[in-house]
Amino acid sequence: MVEDGDCGPRGEWLDDIENQKLLLNAIANGYEVKKEPKYRIKLPGLAGSNGQQYISKSADGKLFACARRDYLQQEFTNDELKQLPDWIRRLEFEEVEDE
Fold it and tell me: What is the pTM of this model?
């Protein structure tokens, strides 16, 4: 697959015959990568509020409420949810569709 070139870690991975067999088997028999589901944590609606709010996480790990924003972490894996405070885990979650 690679001739006289350095392909870094991928090239090293392909040097192993067992990895070559694994790759060939995946190509021949089909292979699907299953992504871990992610969830948004919905906050209960407030009287007079017209927008949905979610739990968001800042870069320094602080949690806060915010409307949907693409630049904030608002999607959490099951493992991340387990690490959040108990009161947050009692809120409603919505599964995020894969794009």
Answer: 0.57
